[in-house]
Amino acid sequence: MRSKRKKHGAERLEACAAFLTDPASAGDYTALFGNDRPVRVEIGCGKGDFIVGTAANEPQVNFLAVERVHDVLMMAAEKVRDADLENVRLCLADVKDLQLPAGSVDRLYLNFSDPWPKNRHAKRRLTARSFLQVYEQFLRPGGQLCFKTDNAPLFAFTLEELQAAGWTVDSLTDDLHASPENEGNVQTEYERRFSALGFPIHRVVAHKN
Length: 209
Fold this sequence. Notes:
- By secondary structure, the chain is α/β, with parallel strands linked by helices.
- It has one domain: Rossmann fold (3-Layer(aba) Sandwich).
- It has seven helices and eight strands, in the order αβαβαβαββαβαβαβ.
- The protein has helices at 9-14, 29-33, 49-57, 70-83, 129-138, 152-164, 189-196; strands at residues 20-21, 39-43, 62-67, 88-92, 105-111, 139-149, 167-173, 202-208.
- The chain is globular.
């Protein structure tokens, strides 16, 4: 059964209109941000903790946060608005609907994506080869994919897909919070939850050759 949208959700999202864009306009970075700074994209931004923390730490970088669930994007948009982050724009969209210029994205973040655990649903995983091919188009040469998850089978699948698709792994850890790479790590809502339950956080950073 499809869950009901939050009460006044449309009005709440409209109140954040200054920070929103649509899939067709998301690639017009000059119009969105008013500058030509590097652009980074988060696919599946959830409730926005990661994008808000990361954008606040890196004000000289522009961030596009993408989420396909209306009410989840609404909550992220409210956080961006309340933090008054001029270097963030949000888009209600599926990744395949985005129209981003080729070679225009500096870095792509995938944080705690749906694992789609059944084998017959493997193609829906955001690190499946068909999605990697989409990312290749809009990442600049050498642009990085940064993927975090608590799900070990999904992480193993991701590493296999990256290798099969010809990507190079730049860094890899099976326990991010216990590694030196955790310095500067901005946690998501899911990350805090799973880490508190004792799940190690896996992360890989890779680029397309």
